[in-house]
Amino acid sequence: MRLIIMGPPGAGKGTQAKYIAEHFGIPAISTGDIFRANVSDGTPLGVEAKRYMDAGEYVPDEVTNRMVRNRIDEPDAAEGFLLDGYPRTLAQVEELDGMIKFTGHQLDAVLSLVVDKDEVVSRLLQRAQIEGRADDTEDVIRRRQEVYLDQTEPLIQVYKERSLLVEVDGLGEVEEVTKRIFDALDVVPES
Q1: 87 preceded by cis ω (within 30°)?
Q2: 183 phi and psi angles, rounded to 5 deg
């Protein structure tokens, strides 16, 4: 199974990604994890990415694409994967299409966790309080939500047009959301 999980910050993507990966026996691949691994291992791509990250700049698509390509070429991803945080741009959608096509497979589904914005803001404010994240103010959280919508709306439209989009209500207890996800994905044919 080759999947993408999308949803705004605080929608529970990371939590659900673990369950989905375990259910389908595939690795959950987060771009944040890929960046951190490459930087800590001092790979040439990690060194390049760190320059941008240290300057507070967006890591260019070219670097991100190469890191993702290297990761999905690893043996544990041969039978499939779940991508979290990639693609984020239309150019990355095209790049991913090429990566998957090269393997002789195709993308099976794009899971979009649909949540109420105010509920997620409330959830993130609670988490910020519990974890002592002073920089996670309501204004900052709402801005992240806006950026997510601006950046991902075109991607969601592309995947909807390709009949790959699977929207799932992301609100409720973790187990409820997980069940909804499995019910929706278990009927998707694998490439």
Answers
A1: yes
A2: -60, -40
Please say if 180 is a catalytic residue. no
Query: Is the full-model pTM beyond 0.90?
Result: no
- Rg over CA atoms, the chain: 17
Q: Which of 36, 66, 69, 88 is catalytic?
A: 88
Residues 156, 112: Cα–Cα separation, whole Å: 8
Contact between 32 and 85 under an 8 Å Cβ cutoff? The reply is yes
Pairing of strands 28-30, 81-84: parallel
**Tokens encoding 64:** 């991100």
Task: Convert the pLDDT of each residue in 92-115 to its tens digit.
Answer: 999 999 999 988 899 999 999 999
- For 2, list phi and psi in degrees, rounded to 5: -120, 110
Output the pLDDT for position 101.
Answer: 92
